[in-house]
Design a protein that fits this description.
463 residues; Rossmann fold; alpha/beta; two-stranded antiparallel sheet; single chain; globular
Length: 463
């Protein structure tokens, strides 16, 4: 994993993105060569270079938006052929649009067809080789865990659903002061040697401290020896933040929040965030207005002109201030006659049009106007209802910290966790929201924006 503008990304997937970009770039060259194999080419070297760059950029961004470079993508959600097909369709549409707007770089349809064929073959071969090579044991980081209790045991499941496993847990070292040893005995390293010696023998790359109670026998001198020998030493907070993109509520403590880097929300960041929100919202409005118009017509056809098109609801915003969020109405007018409640799967209150627009997040589009008014950001934690927030702040530690920034139309938690329908889900999503608040950057906002395409097209987490 490497950190770019405070956000962790997989170095393996970054390398894959670069390789596939080069493959897409070459595909246009090969497409031109095949098309003009027996005749003189119509295009200069510069024409093909520009066309190749546009083609490769569109495909790479499209594949990124469909989650094909997301490490947390599981085998259950992978569907490589489906994702590649959708990615290529979006990219081709984008390339044709660019050719229409900039006819000076127009490339013949036959060349584009050949380029698409070569690019498709290229990504399939690249993916096949990547998942064979990247998951070889000797290429993974070898991790030694200090601890054998419940916190150590939880580390064994982090890699379970990932297609590419970036590390392997070599073993666990238990201490006599630990009274609650739950790690499987076969995974325990029984040695009287120092931690540095064990690490050298086992070829360890990094050490993670996962003691249930650090006050009982923290091996400071041994760990200092390891650190000075060049090994990476991480606590659980840093490990979870890097590997899962969250702030672990099970391990967080007030002094960590006080002394950790990040959580800066003033100065230039406020200005750049506001400019980003305005540009992103106006761009989305320019693209989405036909969809919004069609949605209005669909709601009117289903419910008639006497029922409201929009639904306004009080939500909690920045610094705990309430505001009225605006959505297309997707439920019956009397949906909350029995009081406030969570949306459920196959909710009987949702209209026919509502079921469709909720699945693809079209009902969220009017929130563009909340962003332009300054009540929301384009990217940020999703705003919650005050009826729920009041209880959450009493029962869930650090819940109010998510209100340090403006709520967003989309967010890090929406990409990483499905729809939340109870308090447990709220706690899980809070961990991702805190990661966003801590590590905000324009780079992270752009990353979330691109990957929101996947959420929309796949209908992830919608109810």
């Amino acid at each position: 994993m490497i950190r770019i503008f405070r956000h962790y990304i997989s170095s393996a997937y970054l390398f894959l993105l670069i390789i596939e970009f080069c493959s897409f770039f070459a595909a246009m060259y090969y497409g031109s060569d095949v098309r003009f194999l027996f005749t003189t080419s119509w295009y200069s070297e510069q024409d093909i270079t520009v066309a190749s760059f546009v083609f490769a950029s569109a495909l790479s961004l499209s594949c990124s938006g469909l989650g094909l470079y997301r490490r947390s993508l599981s085998w259950d959600d992978y569907s490589l052929l489906a994702r590649v097909s959708v990615s290529f369709s979006l990219a081709i549409f984008t390339v044709i649009s660019i050719y229409y707007l900039l006819p000076d770089i127009l490339i013949a349809r036959s060349v584009l067809i050949y380029a698409v064929i070569f690019a498709f073959l290229g990504i399939m071969v690249t993916r096949f080789l990547f998942y064979r090579v990247a998951n070889l044991e000797h290429l993974k980081r070898r991790v030694l865990v200090i601890g054998s209790g419940e916190k150590a045991q939880k580390l064994t499941s982090i890699n379970n659903s990932f297609i590419h496993k970036g590390f392997t847990l070599v073993g666990f070292i238990a201490f006599s002061d630990e009274h609650n040893q739950v790690v499987d005995k076969s995974q325990l390293i029984d040695s009287h040697d120092s931690i540095a010696s064990v690490s050298e023998v086992l070829n360890i790359d990094e050490i993670v401290i996962a003691l249930d109670d650090k006050r009982k026998g923290m091996p400071v001198n041994d760990l200092l020896d390891c650190k000075m020998s060049g090994l990476t030493i991480l606590d659980l907070m840093a490990f979870y933040e890097r590997e899962q993109g969250l702030i672990s509520l099970d391990n967080v403590y007030p002094s960590w929040l006080v002394f950790s880097d990040g959580f800066a929300q003033s100065g230039l960041r406020v200005i750049e965030k506001r400019l980003f929100d305005i540009v992103a919202s106006l761009t989305l409005l320019l693209i989405a207005w036909p969809i919004m118009l069609f949605t209005i017509m669909a709601i009117l056809l289903e419910d008639g002109f006497h029922k409201p098109l929009f639904y306004r609801q009080t939500r909690v915003g920045e610094d705990g201030k309430n505001f009225n969020v605006m959505k297309f109405r997707s439920m019956r007018v009397d949906a909350e006659k029995n009081g406030v409640q969570w949306a459920e799967k196959k909710d009987y209150r949702i209209t026919k049009v509502g079921r469709y627009i909720r699945k693809f997040r079209i009902d969220e589009l009017p929130q563009i106007f909340n962003v332009l008014k300054g009540e929301m950001s384009f990217v940020g934690p999703r705003p919650e209802r005050p009826e729920f927030v009041e209880g959450f702040e009493k029962r869930i530690p650090y819940y109010r910290e998510r209100h340090r920034v403006k709520p967003g139309i989309t967010g890090w938690a929406q990409l990483c966790y499905p729809y939340g329908a109870n308090e447990y889900d709220t706690i899980q999503k809070l961990q991702y929201d805190l990661y966003y608040v801590k590590n905000y950057s324009l780079f992270l906002d752009f990353s979330i924006m691109f990957n929101t395409v996947e959420v929309i097209l796949w209908g992830k987490g919608a109810r």
